[in-house]
Amino acid sequence: MASTYLTRTNAQAATNVDKATISFWLKRTRLGTEESVFGAYSSDANRLKFRFRSDNKFDFEMGVGGSWYSLITNRRFIDTNSWYHFVISYDSTQASASDRTKIYVNGVLETSYGTSNYVPQNQDFYFTKNGLGITIGDNYQGGSHQNYFDGLLSHFVCVDGQALDATTFGETDSDTGEWKWKGISGVNYGNNGFYLLKDVANVTDYSGNNNNFTAGGGGMTLTQDNPSNNFPTMKSPGWSDHAHSYGGNRVVTSGTNYRYSVATMGVHKGKWYWEAKFQALSNYAIMGISGDTGGQSNSTGHILGAGLYHYSVVYNDVGGNGHKYNNAGNSPTNTPGAFMGGFSVGDIVTFALDCDNNTLKIGANGQWANGSGSTNQTFANSTAITIADPTLTPSGYYFPACGDYTGTSSTIEFNFGNGFFGNTAIASAGTNASNLGLFEYDVPADYKAICSKGLNT
Question: Does domain 5-216 have CATH number 2.60.120.200?
């Protein structure tokens, strides 16, 4: 959500101010930074928030007259590949302190807390209390919105007047054993309850209560990435000098030479398609695939390094040429010297990875390369780069990747099927026979988006 937040002020008495349930699905894309998922505010001394701390532990915190009550986990939430389901079940009427706030993660009750200061008995739940301002996507205190959540949110539900468990909103898949969304039925949302982000990117309440929100700070985007079909995001293995934003699909490179970002999903069989857009360019900005996720940062372990089975496109060199580097465990080779005539800001590079035949085709702006300085109009006539069997790479997989050969800064935005480059929607969706994901250009026949449904088929 970047710097976007949603806000409203409760305008009626709660059904039961001592009982409530909050349920939501989220996907983290930024670690090591304090991020608030939701909050409620009466004053700086009387407020609540649910946040991820800079140590990646979650903290459910409530201030009551300047006294602070917190539940801080021992474990860290550092998975940027998957969706988490959180349920906060609140019933302050309970005599046992530990029964007053129960938090479920992917259907399992969280019990391991480094800090466990439970709220006093019969303490009002600020999030449903009449007259209080509430936010989703940030925290309000000290007169300003802050600690924005830069990730993905889906199916955000508030039930006023009932303390429900996780089975109301999710269930275990009988085939995979994974926790999954099951839909909501038969729920009485109560006076100040609501249901947001139900397969839409707007502020409309779908509970029937018309408790709509107002968006502030920026726009909202509807991504194809959701709890039922998970798409990759980008990460930097082993360092923090690449910046990731917009749901983890924008990469700003910087810092030491050769460092790179890789996608959170890799493939070793099948045929796969994705797109990436240059938004800012340095000499030797790189996009392509990597068979390594170990975070190497020297001449034998970077995105073009020997032994790591990387294949990449490099942006203009000092002479203004684009290059195709092909490395299958040897030193990088440069063939040809002017691949596709070089690239410019705004170019959308297309990738078609065939792990069954060990080839990679590369194009730009709807044209596919023919292996020289020009391009072909058709995918069938384009020239493929021969790659190694992905199972022979250090990881056993290939991952979409990007980086900078010179350690200077470039901005690259990936579309794995989300339908956006950064926060800009694709101009017009190309054909896609698999119906998985939205892309700017036509997806070649038999190729699919890298996503959980694509991988499962």
Answer: yes
